[in-house]
Every structure is written in structure tokens, then in C-alpha cells.
Amino acid sequence: MRWKPNVTVAAIIERDQKFLLVEENTDNHVVFNQPAGHLEKDETLIEAVKREVREETAWEFIPQYIVGIYLSPKQHSDISYLRFCFSGRCDKYHPEQALDNGIIQTVWFNQKEIKQNMDRMRSPMVSQCINDYLSGKNYPLQLLNRVLPDEAIVS
What we know:
Blueprint: E1 6-15, E2 18-26, E3 29-33, E4 36-38, H1 45-57, E5 59-73, E6 80-93, E7 103-109, H2 111-116, H3 124-134, E8 139-140
């Protein structure tokens, strides 16, 4: 059997020294996470993170940087996640939009509130991504490429 990681995207959105998180119900636990989700077929990573932020927060996300790429095995499972974390800003809010299934609410937490709720973070990747962002890790979006089969021609 061939092993493949689950590809996910996540967004770091900071405003006034607070981070946009979602409170969500997952596996009968209420946890906090960055707006995040799975890459879908025929979707670019940028399209995926924009879609996930919109579905989970009702905000339109504008990715500006890649914070990091993380490989994380799920405890007591054969599942691993390959997370592409982006940072950027939100410019338009749609208050009339219903949030994705499982999302209870969005919250803006400062660093102290995140530390106080560390035991309720969905995974260690939440704090790792924020720490990497705060340490200044940001890489250009041009690192990401999408090559379609007909485009792979050397000129």
C-alpha cells in the first residue's frame, strides 16, 4: 500500500496584534485552529487557502507570503498532514454568510490568549505556525508552481 500525506492549507491573519482563529467542533472536541482545510482536486494551494478562509470565517483572504511547510503525523494513526501555511490579510467581510459545518465561531486572540488556550489548540501546528510567523518567516508566493501536463515542455 502506498502512503500519501493529506495536503492541507492554513492561514495566519493578524490584525491589531490579534490572530484570527476558528473555534470548531472536531471529533467531539471543541478546539481552536487557524482557518484551514484540505486541498481539493484541480485546485491550486492559493485557491485552496482563499476558499477555506472564506468558508470558515466569511472573510476574503489575500495571501501575501508562505510562512512554512509542515509535515505532521497524527498521533495513534497512519495519517499525516502536509500543511502549507500562508500569511496575509483580509479585506472584505461577509456577515450574512453562514460558516462551514463544524465551525462554531471566529475569534481574534492575542498571543496571551493563545497561550492560555494552548490545551484547546487543534494541533501543535497552530502554535508552530504562529511562532514561525512572529519570528519573521515569510517566503514569496512565487515558490509555488502549478505545471499542467501540456505545459511541461522545455523550450
